[in-house]
Write a structure and sequence with these properties.
The protein is mainly α. It contains 6 helices and no strands.
């Protein structure tokens, strides 16, 4: 189950990169032709990831209950990974509600006000924290031994992409405020 989860994570990251880059270009005002299928694939991978991670967390909680020892202080990073993942669900749902455009030919959005901008920046912050705390375990799960160098590269690339997304949300917000 853990191995399948690692491959889901790879699928999430790849589809997220494509979705976020094409979505950012669209929010900047250019038509990137962001296919909805990429967003749906990323959402499907993320949903399966949530299910598997929930099952693994329940198993961990059951083992803690049976043993009577939690070792919470020693496992703070583990719980940070789990909590940030579950917290991420809320801004992700808000993202889905905000950017679920309706219309057959044109992509239309509802008014993008300050609350929606804040929710999207919170999504980026939650994503950044969740990704940064989970890169090393993912590389270990894949059996990659040179994890330090590779995790730094992955952090850099994802940080640039998340910064681009944050800028795109801000530019989009400013474009709404000028009309």
């Amino acid at each position: 189950m853990r191995r399948a989860n690692i491959f889901l994570v790879i699928g999430i990251i790849l589809s997220f990169l494509f979705h976020s880059l094409s979505g950012s270009i669209r929010l900047f005002g250019a038509d990137a032709g962001s296919p909805k299928i990429t967003a749906y694939i990323c959402l499907a991978f993320a949903g399966l990831h949530v299910i598997i991670t929930t099952i693994l967390t329940v198993r961990t909680l059951t083992a803690i209950h049976k043993s009577g020892k939690s070792y919470f202080r020693e496992n703070k990073l583990f719980w940070t990974r789990r909590i940030t993942g579950f917290v991420l669900i809320i801004p992700l749902l808000m993202h889905l509600l905000i950017f679920s455009g309706t219309g057959d030919e044109a992509y239309r959005l509802v008014f993008f006000h300050s609350g929606r901008l804040i929710s999207q920046i919170l999504l980026i912050a939650a994503l950044a924290l969740h990704i940064l705390t989970n890169i090393r375990p993912a590389l270990i799960g894949l059996g990659i031994k040179a994890g330090r160098l590779l995790s730094a590269d992955i952090c850099f690339v994802l940080s640039v992409v998340l910064l681009l997304c944050c800028c795109a949300f801000c530019v989009y917000y400013l474009r709404w405020m000028t009309f």
